[in-house]
Amino acid sequence: MNFLFRYANPHEFMRLSGVVLPFTVIGTALCLGAGLYLGFSAPPDYQQGRTVLILFIHVPAATMAMGVYGAIAVCSLLSLVWRHPLSDIAARAAAPLGALFTVLGLVTGSLWGKPMWGTYWVWDARLTSFLLLLFLYVGYMALWNAIEDETRAARAAAILALVGAVNIPIIKFSVNWWNTLHQGETITSGKLAPVFLAPFLLMMAGYGFLFVSLWMVRIRTSILERRARSLMQQGAA
Amino acid sequence: MSPFATLFLRDVRLAARSGGSAALALSFFALVATLVPLGVGADLRLLARVAGGILWVAAVLAALLSLDRLFQGDYEDGSLDLIALSPLPLEMTALAKIVAHWLSTGLPLTLLSPVLALLFNLPPSPTLILFVSLLAGTPAVSAVGAIGASLTLSLKRGGLILPLIILPLLAPAVIFGAGAVALALDGLSSGNALGLLAAFAFGAVLLSPFAAAASVRLNLGG
Amino acid sequence: MNFDMGLYGAYIWPAYGISAIVLIGVTLWSIAAWRRAKAKLSRLEKK
Q1: What ipTM score was computed for the predicted complex, to two decimals?
Q2: What is the pLDDT of residues A27-47, one digit of tens each?
Q3: Where are the domains of chain A?
Q4: CA B101 to mean position of chain CA atoms
Q5: What subunits make at least 3 CB pairs under 8 angstroms with A?
Q6: Residue in C9, C27, C40 nearest the CB of A214
């Protein structure tokens, strides 16, 4: 916990992120580049043909969508319980990224589903859960924007994020249950042939590096914006 | 009379007096139930199949209508500050408001549902399941709704954001409630579904007062 | 690298295309916001 609080100081964070950022950017480029190269060099999958290539961008996007919400939940907890100063900024900065990953997960999932199952949309448990997750993101961002007072907005959003986080397993469970009830499609990707494992993992890592890089950039931007705002208020005083 | 009972009765009376939020919810419920067949056609077999889902969604939306006023009235005239200072814990206040809200929306909707089920050609057994599911599930709508209402109570146009925030959270209730009806329609046992719904509602009513109270506190400038 | 997608090209390329557009787009947007914030701050600090 102390570790986290050491970087709660905006100055410290700016310094640290300034050092780390070049590495994460390089990591992003290398992982995505290598992953794409290996993925496109591999022969077509025995079962799925070339559509397995979509999995390389669908699964990382979907994983990030869920992971980012988890990060927001953790930040919200830090903000509410331990009053960690940068957590609000971090949570708010992550939200649009998570929402976009969710959209990508839905779009790529749909495009993967059409050749596999025949329709662009299939109410399977995973896609349906992601659709609900997208709404959770949108609601979260809307709440931040709606409340004018920043401190209040931060705490309200934090409460909402935590309520959402508690609800997500329940939602997933209920959607799975609903899916079996109505005998919907179960989209299982099946086993990934070994030749695809390396590019797949590289893409996962690449998406992770990309998120961390963008997250840091957005947090740094928020810190600067805050400084600018306080300067303007001082000037006006 | 206990502080809880006092507050509770006050809220119930306010709800009853406020131009009949029950009447509004019931009218909305009935209207939606009327519009859907106009939209999907009068095929009675189709209507029976969708009855559970349509009526559940309509009930949730109808209950939403009066939610944004749950805390706002007291917030605007300063009563909420006084209530927060009273010996009654804010969580109990939230619970009292949740129960009062349910009595003025969820319960009347549940009571009307068999009549609307008739419009959808729903057989007696699934209709009973629908009734039971709404009875058990609408408290969850009031409970989760209270969280949304408390988060948005300082917003003048919070009414627009409120559904956006709480509808995803209510997906399990709709799934289990409508699912129970669908099972009954197929002649299967709805026990599981109703049990899951009851568990969800129980958890919601138990836990949401804490979230709602925390939200009220932060809005009161705590 | 093998770019022959057979029948599936109609799905694979849009998937990659949309992903690229969105991810590159959000990257550019984030960088632009950073630059704007930096410029604004240095203007205010100069006063």
Answers
A1: 0.89
A2: 999 999 999 888 888 776 666
A3: 13-42+51-185+196-236
A4: 8
A5: B, C
A6: C27
